[in-house]
Amino acid sequence: MSDIIASDTGSSADNGDNGPDIETGATVTLHFSLLFASGEEIDTTRNGQPATFTVGDGSLLPGFEEALMGQQAGYAAQINLPAAQAFGEHNPANVQLLPRDRFIAMVGDMPLEEGLVVSFQAPDGELPGVVVGVYTDTVKVDFNHPLSGKEITFDVSVLEVQAP
Question: What is the pLDDT of residue 10?
Answer without folding.
Answer: 45
